[in-house]
């Protein structure tokens, strides 16, 4: 159960080799072994979404995976995605719209929003507010009431689709 | 509608919807929350928790656990007895209140399911949890006190063996003669039940204690709103020098009142660090959070309202029974919520007579105490449900009955029958603004048209009055070491920038941002040149911190006055150099100017001179460019705010599901410092209130087991269930301060559940049904409709 095993993976573009206990979760590995504390643990049961990172480009709950399951794969956390500039427009929109308060849920929401924005862009669609709200159905936020988050993502979706919306705002709608 | 507009009276910074400077760090994943802090030689704690709600403790065998790999120590209640004095959650201004003394871990019995019983300290959390598996505890189960009414029955088991019954506190408020007011009046009544819910902060509680015996110094990193309060508690209960106890609240992942209470685990972690002389960390997992974070509400309120045939509200009688867990929370007690319920009911209205009874009852459940909007949602829902029932009885529109009965503008200052004093509210203005904002006539027309098609929409409104900016009348007079003042140390650095250390704290609401705005405007400097420090007892002056909507009003005024003081210092030095009178100089855009704005010297030049060339100053002019200032409100005991919510819902009468279509808020928090942040406080608060209205409930079984203590089972509002929320402001500044700001943190939560309750009942009314229990789950709605 506790004999460490070799683990090799790429984290935020850097090759990493560690020995870890098989029972160690990917989230605990990122936070504890690598000091990547931007990945947050809110429930450890895959409900809250605060721990979501990209695994080979797909969002996953880092709390629901064992670190050893990521062997040979690529993990990107909020730190890496930030430093690469991948999230820059989303982060700017979140900042301007105050789409975060305590910030604990934010890394997971950014990773999910980034993935959805990619899918919407690939399909050539601009999401409605309802679609954005549905896309966030795996992310808890206890501070904002969600509306500012929806506003921020909507403004980025429009901007990326070429319908610039430089002042993150919105039209009143039921 | 776009995101928040600037306040009509906006200055250079005050009143402007500016983003928070500190948010960029959080967006980059560079936040530093308590669990992120790692110290050399740090150990980890895990707790064995009671599986029983009520049981006597027998032999605890920890021998196998102590021998497990990585385990450093296994501690039980007896280990803490010599270290830590017990605490009792009463305050002297709650006359006759009692509560059993508490210790870090129990020695004789357990009183709720989830209570920590044994603590294991190991190299890693996983090793500590491994060791919990091999601890044997002999529990002798006792009958549990669970139901609110049963707890008061004569045959009920008594939780505190030294007490005659399970009642912890009782009070009555009586003004005038309700009996005569009810005579000959129309009478409407309610019997409302409010479920237990809990804060569910995204970051669970976390505490890391680090005792250094060489200097008898204790440093505690803790996810809390109130570092000064914990500094006092740790020093007093562990017999340490207060000056050698440092509490640091780093980034805090949500608190909402939940993290300002003392928890048994906090004391156990501090005690363990004292014993082991090493850093010890405990971070609650989510299951532990549900089983040990304070819960909120849990009231049954029976109330009746007397109304004259002309629609004049006369009197209210109230009986509030609230279940608070096995003991009263410390150091703020579990009586404040009920006390606020019985004092706030009826507050917006011209009542002649009032009587309220409050009974605070112990149960074998998690402790109940202050959570966002303490008491307000209960008082609001009770009052506004009664008013709607009266309107219905008399055939009046809900807006009209309120219009006729609000405290009027010529009545201020106004004292309510329960004794609260209002400086000035804007009830009628907010009502009319909401009417227009909702386009109420159009909504009513649409509702009628849809009803004809079998679609059941409901419109509800709810007025609130909110307590903000508390003086020592709140806690200090009762003997609590909880400050009502704030302190600010403001420094012009040698490079001419500004450093501001202040006693209010940040949990994401934007305390640091608004203080930066106030200081920048007060001094006449660029906001980017102001650095605000909070959340560390060693680097900031002592004060009240952030709770009860006091940060902007009291902390903000402190910062404003401090900035005036530093400005005077800067101008005195500049005047000496410029051979001018200080009164003829000003500071604008980081430069000392003439009265007409002509720059004379930059702040960098003033600071350079004061720090590096003080020899050039006249001997009677001090070079000091650091000022300290404290402010405590001295006028009204509280700065009351007001506002009104509107709710539009659609009830599916087949399934009982409710769609929340839209929500409106018109609020008056006095001077708005940052409308962007105020709006988001309101929205977040509204959604927490809607959680209480529709989803959130800590459900217990007959034996006192929490049945839904996980994020999968306990429902909190999600993005897809929440509506867009329209917000408008009225600004009635308090004249007690120069800044004029009151609080806005509870305004969203205070009335959203009451508005939703009225809206759902409005939808059900044509069907002859009504609902009087929160949360309004589909099952309860179907029962109300007699479908199940």
Describe the structure.
The complex is a heterodimer of chains A (174) and B (788). By secondary structure, chain A is of the alpha+beta class. Chain A has helices at residues 26-33, 78-83, 88-97, 106-123, 129-135, 147-160, and strands spanning 5-11, 14-20, 52-55, 58-61, 74-76. The longest helix of chain B has 28 residues, at 551-578. In chain B, helix 10 crosses helix 11, helix 12 (427-438) crosses helix 13 (440-451) and helix 17 (675-694) crosses helix 18 (747-764). Chain B folds into 3 domains: 34-143 and 200-292, Aldehyde oxidase/xanthine dehydrogenase, a/b hammerhead (Aldehyde Oxidoreductase, domain 3); 295-405 and 418-472 and 635-784, Aldehyde Oxidoreductase, domain 4; 485-631, 2-Layer Sandwich (Aldehyde Oxidoreductase, domain 4). A 7-stranded mixed β-sheet of chain B has the order 3-5-1-12-9-10-11, sandwiched between helices. In chain B, strands 7-15-14-13-8-29 form a 6-stranded mixed β-sheet. Chain B has a 4-stranded mixed β-sheet with strand order 18-26-27-28, with helices on both faces. Chain B is globular. The interface between A and B is large, with 67 and 62 residues.
